[in-house]
């Protein structure tokens, strides 16, 4: 029997009505001939409530108890979803993480999945169960304690189940109807993509397109599990949403697939850093230990043994970064003449696997920005992405200009 | 190390503040030299919310899914209680039913405890853990699914743990400060009892003194676990509350320990029933199948092969009882000439193990009622209890008169 994994996020199961609506989608796939593993999140708001209680009780909480508490939200949804399916005469039962068992590491609150034995669920499928409803986001440690996978862990749970059970596809039901060429709030020309490659999705996800958790996309790419991002709130349509898949399965595509943005960036430059081996390691090692999420790093050529070192980080981490490099200077770990901070920048990126075989994308991007009089402050590139830092006030203008320049309103 | 079991009901853990207050009590017993097993209920209102969701989702719900859903409330409290204790530097951890494991039958939603292996918890106590916080009301079936013990199951969980671990005592923390000679809302002369025998508590509990669940008292009696009922909301006092214990441990006591009442009773009489062998079985078998909770049963002597058969049941079950006996008559299972219903009665009882060795209690009771002009409609007696049905309007008067007549405001 072909098998599907269907994952419903918190807003898709926020009320009993929405659970019923989600269950209808599941019922339809069962009618289509699938066995289904449903992964559910907690009802919207529940996990935040539980986390709040834990933090109020114990600011430096024992992560094992945190996991025992916050995992309960998913258990409630799993049972209610199984009951709803039973009411629709679909043979279903719920499974908590430890019942599967979904085996994880002992890294409480951010555990990694180690193994998902398939025998328990498969035995029930063989007995006629059509739907296994599994509480997402949770597992069991080697010590027999409940673990959670960290925020967004239900997406990862879904992909891991799809990989373990050889599912035909993993459908991620959420509150958006797919992946767009860019943020539709910025330009109405934004177009929903029918397909996008794993690599592109990874770049878009880490750039702030909060549709899928990065880890779940990595996992899907490694195990070649096709993902479908689809809205819970639209009428059923088997072709709805966006398929995230291997690039070989995407026949034709634009050179550029999407324009991503990240609003709250800051640019920090250490002026006149002594340019000797190990200096970059010293700076970024210290920043990493201080918990600063460094994104772009740019080092220009040096003159007379000194260079300028620039990096970007979220605006609200600038103070921390400042303190960190000043302390490193006092400890004589690094040496620089001055610090320049620009907190009013944003990042805009174009992403596309087509770039690998097409030249001139960067030039086209810079021209489009230049035509709008937008000054580029920093540039970085990867194989399938070009990112620039620009003044924050130009964010919308830049996204619109690039979306037009690469013709993204038309499908490839 | 001596061991205590402490159970906190829903109102005692209703908020983070109350959990903190409860944890302080636990901390004090640890300071007194005890290892402690804490049994917690769900935060007040949580179980009702979960039950509401299940019933709305599926009126004839699968009890296995019901259990998976409603058990989650206790898991939350257990984790929060463990965190609170850790904040107070008391080594503690939480245990869910399946982790202990508390093994039960497969009778979902009303499972019975089969076994509580002590090795897992004892291994942790040996490692230095001082408090095991256990989610009450839940266990695991032989099939590995979550079970619940039914309403009030946390009391039963507490007593079962006390029995399994040979606890010195089982303290039931609740929102009343003990067991009273009668309902303090009816007479201000009601006096808190320092001690009461298991048998008396059973009669009082089943008569509507809703302090302890009947099953938990039965279990405590069987395993001779001393219970202490004590308020969470009063200042700490090692002698507070009421001890429920073996009658041998109660040195002196009044002949009568308490006056109980049950307000909403109805008296139903089948007139002129053919008096032949098997007729009582036919009537009460049918009533039982129909779900009527028959309490008192009275059959008078028969005349000319016919007799009157009277029973009492809750007022809101009269219609069901009526329908049931009429149907049984139509099917010719029983035969009677008429049905008399009196829905305006209540039950008043005096309870005391002293009755066993004292005669004249019944006479004294009837005299006291007679002196107030209260007519007795039905009488039943057991070894340690005398119950009467009287007109409902006399309930308060009767309770006050009996409380005075047996001198209950003074300790024995």
TrEMBL record, chains A, B:
UniProt pathway: Amino-acid biosynthesis; L-methionine biosynthesis via de novo pathway; L-homoserine from L-aspartate: step 1/3; Amino-acid biosynthesis; L-lysine biosynthesis via DAP pathway; (S)-tetrahydrodipicolinate from L-aspartate: step 1/4; Amino-acid biosynthesis; L-threonine biosynthesis; L-threonine from L-aspartate: step 1/5
GO CC aspect terms: cytosol
Enzyme Commission identifier(s): 2.7.2.4
Pfam families in UniProt: AA_kinase (PF00696), ACT (PF01842), ACT_9 (PF22468)
Binding positions for ATP per the UniProt entry: 7-10, 174-175, 180, 185, 210-211
Record domain ACT: where: 268-353
Catalytic activity: L-aspartate + ATP = 4-phospho-L-aspartate + ADP
Binding site for substrate: 47, 74
The name this protein goes by in its record: Aspartokinase
Taxonomic lineage of the native organism: Bacteria, Pseudomonadati, Pseudomonadota, Alphaproteobacteria, Rhodobacterales
């Amino acid at each position: 029997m072909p098998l599907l994994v269907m994952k419903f996020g918190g807003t898709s199961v926020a009320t009993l009505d929405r659970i019923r609506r989600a269950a209808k989608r599941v019922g339809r796939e069962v009618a289509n001939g699938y066995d289904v593993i449903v992964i559910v999140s907690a009802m919207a708001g529940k996990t935040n409530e539980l986390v709040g209680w834990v933090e109020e009780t114990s600011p430096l909480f024992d992560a094992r108890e945190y996991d025992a508490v916050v995992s309960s939200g998913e258990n409630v949804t799993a049972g209610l979803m199984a009951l709803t399916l039973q009411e629709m005469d679909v043979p279903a039962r719920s499974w908590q993480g430890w019942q599967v068992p979904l085996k994880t590491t002992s890294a409480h609150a951010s555990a990694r999945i180690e193994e998902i034995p398939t025998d328990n669920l498969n035995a029930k499928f063989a007995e006629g169960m059509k739907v296994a409803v599994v509480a997402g986001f949770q597992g069991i440690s080697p010590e027999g304690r409940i673990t959670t996978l960290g925020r967004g862990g239900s997406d990862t749970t879904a992909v891991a189940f799809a990989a373990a059970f050889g599912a035909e596809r993993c459908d991620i039901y959420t509150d958006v109807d797919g992946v767009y060429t860019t943020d539709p709030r910025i330009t109405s020309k934004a177009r929903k993509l029918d397909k996008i490659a794993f690599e592109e999705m990874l770049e878009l996800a880490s750039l702030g397109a909060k549709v899928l958790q990065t880890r779940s996309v990595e996992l899907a790419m490694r195990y070649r599990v096709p993902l479908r991002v689809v809205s819970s709130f639209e009428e059923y349509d088997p072709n709805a949403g966006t398929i995230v898949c291997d690039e070989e399965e995407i026949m034709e595509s634009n050179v550029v697939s999407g324009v991503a943005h990240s609003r709250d960036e800051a640019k920090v430059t250490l002026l006149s850093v002594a340019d000797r081996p190990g200096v970059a390691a010293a700076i970024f090692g210290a920043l990493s230990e201080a918990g600063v999420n460094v994104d772009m790093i740019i080092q220009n050529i040096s003159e007379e043994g000194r260079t300028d070192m620039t990096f970007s980080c979220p605006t609200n981490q600038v103070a921390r970064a400042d303190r960190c490099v000043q302390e490193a200077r006092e400890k004589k770990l690094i040496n620089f003449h001055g610090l320049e901070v620009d907190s009013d920048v944003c990042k805009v990126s174009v992403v596309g696997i087509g770039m690998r075989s097409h030249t001139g994308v960067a030039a086209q991007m810079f021209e489009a920005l230049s035509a709008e009089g937008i000054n580029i402050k920093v540039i970085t590139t990867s194989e399938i992405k070009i990112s620039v830092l620009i003044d924050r006030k130009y964010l919308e203008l830049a996204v619109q200009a690039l979306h037009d320049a690469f013709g993204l309103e038309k499908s490839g």
